[in-house]
Structure formats: C-alpha cells, structure tokens
Design a protein that fits this description.
With 417 residues, the protein is α/β, with parallel strands linked by helices. The protein folds into 2 domains: 154 residues, Beta Barrel (Lyase, Ornithine Decarboxylase, Chain A, domain 1); 247 residues, Alanine racemase (TIM Barrel, Alpha-Beta Barrel). Helices cover 28% and strands 26% of the residues. The strands form 3 sheets. Strands 4, 14, 15, 16, 17, 18, 19, 20 and 21 form a 9-stranded mixed beta sheet that branches. An 8-stranded parallel β-barrel has the order 5-6-7-8-9-11-12-13, surrounded by 4 helices. Strands 1-2-3 form a 3-stranded antiparallel beta sheet. A hairpin with a 2-residue loop joins strand 20 and strand 21. The chain binds ligand LLP. The site of ligand LLP has 21 residues, from helix 10 and helix 11.
C-alpha cells in the first residue's frame, strides 16, 4: 500500500496533509511515513524467516535517529561505516551485538571505539586493516570478531558509481587473495574469525548477481572448511533496488526465496545490510516553487530545494518522481526543475513533463528517503532542511531545520586577520 496518496486532490503522507506540514514546519522538508518504514522492514525480515538471520540496516542511507529507532523497535541491527554512525546508532538504542562495521578506511580511534562497545564484527576490507585491527584489539586485551569482505568480481549491472564488487573496485579483498588472508587471520592474536561478507553494489534490479556471488563465496567456504576454518556468519550485504520510475526490482520475498535457496545448505547465520530498500520509498522531499521562467525552447521551475538538499539527480542523473502537493495546475509542461545553487548541475528534474507549477506551489519529490537527507550539505551556506515523521494522523519534527548560526558554529576568524 502506498502511504503517499491524494485525498481530494491534496497529497497526504498517511493521514496528514503535506500542506499542513509545510504550513507548520516550512519548506523544504523531508517527510517519512512510519507505516512504510515498518512495512518494508517486515517484508524484508519475513523473506528470510526460514533461516536464522539478522538485518543490519545500512544506516548510511538514512541515519536520522527516529528512522533508526523505528527499525530497532522491529529487531534490526546496523551496518556502519564510521565511528559517527556507531555513535548515532548507540544513541538510538542499537544492540551492539547486531552491529557490523564495513568500510575501506577505518581509523584507529574508530576501531578502538567499536571494540570498546563490543560490536558483532568488522567486515575487513584489506590485508593491512586486518593486521591493524589485530594489533589494536591485542593492545586492548580483546579479540575482534571479523569477516573478510570478499570481492567476488561479479557485475551487478548498476550505475558505475555504485558498483562495488568488480575486481578493480576499491572494496574488499579479491577472491583469489581471500583464502590466504583467512589462513593468516587464524594466526593473529587479536582476531576471532567468525564470518564472510560481500556487498556487490547498490540499486540492483536482478537477483542473479547476488546468487552468482554467493555461489563463488560458497566455494571458498568449502575450502575453508577443509582447513578446519568454520564460519558462523554469512553477510550478504545490501543492494536490493527499488522502483524509482520504470525499474522492476524483485520483491523482497522473491529475492529472499533465491537467497535462502542458495544458502540453506550452509547452516550459517545470515546477515543482510539493506539500506535503500527499507527507506527509499518511505520518504519524500517537499519544496516550494519560487519562480518560473520560459526561455525559447526551455522552461525552468525554480524551487527552494537544490542539489545540496537532494544530490542524487546531479550526481547520478537519477530519477525522482514529481507530484504536485495540490493538484490545481493548469496542465503539464516540459521543464527543468532547478534549485538556488550556483551550478548548472543543480537540477532535480531535467527536461521532463511535469505539472505547470506556479509561484508558491508545493512540489513533492518521491522516493527520496534513501541517500536524500543523508547526502545533503550546506553548500552555498544553505542550512540543512527539517525532517518530519508521520504516523497515522500525527506528525513530529524529527530534526529541526538548521539555522545560519549552526552553519558558523565552530568557525573562528584567525587572530592574525
Ligand atoms: N553495505 C555496504 C557495505 C554498502 O556500502 C552499502 C551502500 C550498503 C550495504 C547498502 O546498499 P543499499 O541496500 O542501500 O543499496 N549514494 C548512492 C548509493 C551508495 C551506496 C553505498 N553503499 C545513491 O544515492 O544511489
């Protein structure tokens, strides 16, 4: 069920009118539907009910604490990539034993912090990182649970910027080196070898690349077993895509069926790191039309949100559906919807047919819950926008709009000036 629906030509999030939210909170604003977040989590979770598993929500997609708490209430853990993410997740109440730590550039203080809090495991992405984690853990008198992120060299068929599992990618340890690293890991004093990990890319719309990668890792698991190395956790990563426009990604249930089929015989505890799939279609960005202008063949709609608020169109040429919050436009028009940033790349929509928005009209950008606010910045000294969560007929501000004072916080004018 879609929780962003029209009632009397007015767009609602669940039972709350978006116009009312903007009247109280201002624009631009990100709005999330609690019912959608919960439904997505449950659908993903149920897809794996046949096997022991834990969902470690990949919080880089949306790390706002109310979103995290929604998932933690349903039993989720997190996949983190920094000490900052770990701090946020702990503040929102995560169980440290459901935290996996990925990323190619873990810093000493972050490794120490993760060891202090007692996370489940580090997904190790390089030979040197493995050594470093062992050194730090030994110094602290601890053993770090680890999985090696194996790069299976499988093409996920997605945008090059979000492809991670090809052999020339910076991520993970290549499959031909991984066996050797497992053997070495077994000899390191600060290391407890407990798992194997993969993550091949994001916004995948087919299941085959996942299954192909799992099959490659299974060969490795069999070899490890002959050497007496028995792993408990199989981390399948994230990456399951969503529908932005005409894509037809598999439903979590179909993805689940294939993955369960491919992993059932292993007798391992499965971990998943979905990000986009849980939050992407649970959030929208609402902005206001400032001005319009027509130039020869080209029409522009200037709004109060820009590439600093939603970077995906500028970065990946990505598509976000556009809906009028109040359907009172006189028709459709082919236009670019652009923001106030001083760059030509500052567009949210390029040459697409959209409602003929006029000054003051509110515009909703759909499917903006993942990598939307999380990738926003204050470029051009534009304070980051507010976030709101809706549940039924209630809504609350879950992040205040930044102020200009927030932007200059921590700055000082050098004493020699
Ligand atoms: N696990 C790891 C190790 C990851 O690097 C990622 C995403 C995920 C899980 C979650 O992937 P998901 O389920 O969300 O596809 N900013 C880009 C996406 C970058 C993805 C980065 N890694 C975008 O807006 O499309």
């Amino acid at each position: 069920m879609n929780h962003f629906q029209y009632k009397n030509n007015e767009l609602y999030a669940e039972d709350v009118s978006l116009k009312d939210i903007v009247a109280q909170v201002g624009s631009p604003v990100y709005v999330y539907s609690h019912a959608t977040l919960s439904r997505h989590f449950k659908a993903f979770d149920e897809a794996f009910s046949a096997l022991p598993h834990t969902i470690c929500y990949s919080m880089k997609a949306n790390s706002t604490q109310s979103v995290l708490k929604t998932f933690f209430n349903l039993g989720s853990g997190v996949d983190i990539v920094s000490g900052g993410e770990l701090c946020r997740a702990l503040k929102a109440g995560v169980d440290p034993q459901k935290v996996v730590y990925s990323g190619v550039g873990k810093m000493d203080h972050e490794i120490e912090y993760a060891l202090t809090t007692g996370i489940l495991m580090f997904n190790v992405e390089s030979e040197q990182e493995l050594t470093r984690i062992s050194e730090i853990a030994s110094r602290m008198g601890k053993k770090a649970g680890i999985a090696i992120r194996v790069n299976p060299d499988v093409d996920p068929g997605t945008h090059p910027y979000i492809t991670t599992g090809l052999k020339n990618a910076k991520f993970g340890i290549t499959i031909d080196r991984a066996l050797e690293e497992y053997t070495r890991a077994m000899t390191l004093p600060g290391i407890d070898v407990i798992g194997i990990d993969m993550h091949i890319g994001s916004q995948l719309t087919k299941v085959n690349p996942f299954v192909d990668s799992i099959d490659k890792l299974k060969v490795m698991i069999a070899k490890l077993r002959t050497q007496g190395i028995n792993l408990n956790y199989f981390d399948c990563g994230g990456g399951l895509g969503i529908q932005y426009n005409a894509e037809e990604p598999p439903l979590p249930a179909d993805y689940g069926k294939e993955i369960v089929g491919a992993t059932r015989d292993l007798g391992m505890h499965l971990l998943f790191e979905p990000g986009r799939n849980l939050v992407g279609n649970a959030g929208i960005l609402v902005a206001k039309t400032l001005f319009t202008k027509a130039r020869d063949e080209k029409n522009f709609i200037m709004i109060d949100a820009g590439m600093n608020d939603l970077a995906r169109p500028a970065l990946y040429d990505s598509y976000h559906g556009v809906q009028a919050v109040n359907k009172d436009q006189d028709g459709m028009i082919v236009a670019d919807i652009v923001g106030p940033i001083c760059e030509s790349g500052d567009f949210l929509v390029k040459g697409r047919e959209v409602p003929m928005f006029k000054q003051g009209d509110l515009v909703a950008f759909m499917s903006a819950g993942a990598y939307g606010f999380a990738m926003s910045s204050s470029y051009n000294s534009r304070p980051r926008v507010a976030e709101v969560m809706v549940k039924g007929d209630k809504f609350e501000v879950i992040r205040e709009r930044e102020t200009v004072e927030d932007l200059v916080k921590g700055e000082k004018i050098a004493s020699f000036l």
